[in-house]
Amino acid sequence: MGKGELTRQTVLAAAAAIADRIGLSGLTIGTLANQVEMSKSGLFGHFRSKEALQLAVLAYARESFVDAVIRPAIAAPRGERRVRTLVDRWLAVCLERQAGCVFVSADTEFDDQPGPIRDQLVRDHRDLMESIAQMFRTGISEGEFRPDADPEQFAHDLYGVMLGFFHAHRLMRDPDAVGRTWRAVDALLANARI
Amino acid sequence: MGKGELTRQTVLAAAAAIADRIGLSGLTIGTLANQVEMSKSGLFGHFRSKEALQLAVLAYARESFVDAVIRPAIAAPRGERRVRTLVDRWLAVCLERQAGCVFVSADTEFDDQPGPIRDQLVRDHRDLMESIAQMFRTGISEGEFRPDADPEQFAHDLYGVMLGFFHAHRLMRDPDAVGRTWRAVDALLANARI
DNA sequence: GCATCTTCCGCACGATCGTTCGGCTCGTCA
DNA sequence: TGACGAGCCGAACGATCGTGCGGAAGATGC
After folding, report:
1. What range does the domain containing A87 cover?
2. How far apart are CA A124 and CA A62, in angstroms?
3. Side-chain half-sphere of B161: how many Cα atoms within 13 Å?
4. Which one of A122, A170, A187 has the shortest CB-CB distance to B191?
5. Using an 8 Å Cβ cutoff, are A193 and B165 in contact?
6. How many angstroms separate the CA atoms of A56 and A65, rounded?
7. Is residue A42 part of a domain?
8. CA distance B83 to B162
9. Does a structural domain hold residue A45?
């Protein structure tokens, strides 16, 4: 990895950390350059526009999410335990780095602003929903979930539960946010069980 | 109502409409002044800071929400029908004005930025949760819901379902967002019924 | 009908935004 | 050793941000 790519990774890590807290449009090149102790122009040279930087941050966050949440879930046994591993890693990744989720904030920031960033957010979420639905489908074929259950509806509902978690945890600082989330997931799974 | 208060209301209505789409921090005095065809300084005079403007927008949105969603629900018969009226009005108010919800976006924008705006958002959400929990409690005393059900958990879960709706509707433009939401609410109510 | 007070404007301020440009400092290779 | 390209910087750009000031209009009270 050349020196350019190295600092690029450093910048992206710092940018993702800022975007987790301030949001993707609140992320400014000045503050980011200040954070990594570089000049604005030196940093800017690595990306050729702010939009490209934002897209790079999204790609970075996506890879982090897949590594920390999706892959451990896929490594877990099929069916309910896989879904529970997914939620467990998802909650853990939000708790350990004391920050929100870039995607959750970016989704509300860009849902009314057409462009490549919005398009990417839509693609990412579609992929996530498809991953969850697929986990649910293997749970059906394993005989753990009811065959007449709707995998897409399950994915939608599970994501709603996670949105509720982020809200309770980040805004309300609810000390029982994790507990409430697990109770909601329990109910979702109980309704899906055979 | 004097002339000052009149234009103030006009400004607030336009500001709320903008904040619904762009968010509360994306709402800028320049664009707002341009929208209502006033000068920046003329508009600025009605509020004495941007933060005061944002708080006023939140108050305006809160009153609108109470009028359009909470009050119709309270006017409905106790128990499950009241909860369903709440959801119905909530969905309707988001569908008719083709826009998002100020609170949903503001919650993720300000969840990491301490100050009076965040404090107000926390208060507003606490009030909303208390209203929903209270509706659920009267449902229990009416004998419609299980006495051992947790009203606060129900409020939390219902809000998660609504967050899922906003996400599916605004970002994903899911044509079945309303359908998915009702199925999720049905499941929530089915689990709560006696 | 005049004095007063509110409402609103034009103008300007310092700060910060994203972005461009020219040049300096290196490591790399011929 | 000398040319070269990559990486980074300082300075500056036009635009826009939130915010003040001084003064016109217009409404209001006597």
Report:
1. 57-192
2. 8
3. 28
4. A187
5. no
6. 14
7. no
8. 13
9. no
Neighbouring C-beta atoms of residue A12, cutoff 10 Å: 23
User: Do residue B108 and residue A184 have CB atoms under 8 angstroms apart?
Assistant: no
Does residue A167 lie in a domain region?
yes
Which whole number is the average pLDDT over A66-85? 98
Flag whether A52 is in a domain.
no
**What is the C-alpha separation between A189 and B161, in angstroms, rounded?**
16
- Tell me what the pLDDT averaged over chain A comes to: 96
| Separation CA A107–CA B167 (nearest Å) | 7
Contacts of A25 in chain B (CB under 8 A): 26
| pTM of structure | 0.96
Residue A85 and residue A73 in contact, taking contact as beta carbons nearer than 8 Å: yes
Q: How far is the CA of A27 from the C1' of D24 (A)?
A: 42
Amino acid present at B51: E
Round to whole Å and give the CA distance between A50 and A65.
22
- Look at chain B and report how many structural domains it folds into: 1
pLDDT digits (tens, 9 = 90+) for B48-100: 999 999 999 999 999 999 999 999 999 999 999 999 999 999 999 999 987 78
> In this structure, is the dihedral angle defined by the CA atoms of residues A79, A82, A125 and A46, taken in order, positive or negative?
negative
Confidence category of residue B2, pLDDT binned at 50, 70, 90: confident
Query: pLDDT by residue (tens digit) across B171-191?
Result: 999 999 999 999 999 999 999
* B90-122 residue pLDDT tens: 999 999 987 789 999 999 999 999 999 999 999
